[in-house]
Amino acid sequence: MSNFSDLDMLYDYEKDTSAAAVGYMTFSTKASDSDLITRYMQLAQEASKVSEQTRKLILKNGGIT
Q1: What is the C-alpha to C-alpha distance for residues 18 and 36, in angstroms, rounded to an integer?
Q2: For the chain, what are the domain ranges?
Q3: pLDDT tens string for the chain (65 positions)?
């Protein structure tokens, strides 16, 4: 069994939140309903914020982004 450090998990979480932001942004370009587009854009923005916060934690813990 592999041992993962906190930094490894932060890297993985940052990857997932970045992918979520890109995915939501892509969904917003494919939707035709303006309310749905707005929701996807909000989700993309929130995922981007979390990704940024995670990158800050990575840097604080001695990692590189």
Answers
A1: 20
A2: 6-60
A3: 567 788 999 999 999 999 999 999 999 999 999 999 999 999 999 999 999 999 999 999 999 87
